[in-house]
Specification:
Distance between the termini: 74 Å
Helix content: 40-55%
Oligomer: single chain
Shape: elongated
Order of helices and strands: HH
Structural class: mainly alpha
Number of helices: 2
Length: 65
């Protein structure tokens, strides 16, 4: 058996033995961990930064009061 076929067969056996619920939970935990460990400038849904005028919402540089 060549190395590629052996690898595919072993992956098939591993995936067949993996409980789908546990697999999904593991994927979600991995994604959560990875997102929590991103550097701040790459994080999604980060809170808005206050503008230099002190407004916390709205377009940068636009006064709201």
């Amino acid at each position: 058996m060549n190395p590629d076929a052996l690898k595919k067969e072993e992956e098939r056996k591993r995936n067949a033995a993996y409980d789908p619920v546990a697999r999904w939970r593991h994927i979600q935990q991995t994604i959560t961990w990875a997102e929590a460990n991103l550097p701040p400038h790459l994080r999604r849904n980060r809170p808005r930064q206050p503008t230099r005028h002190g407004a916390s919402l709205g377009a940068p540089g636009v006064r709201t009061g």
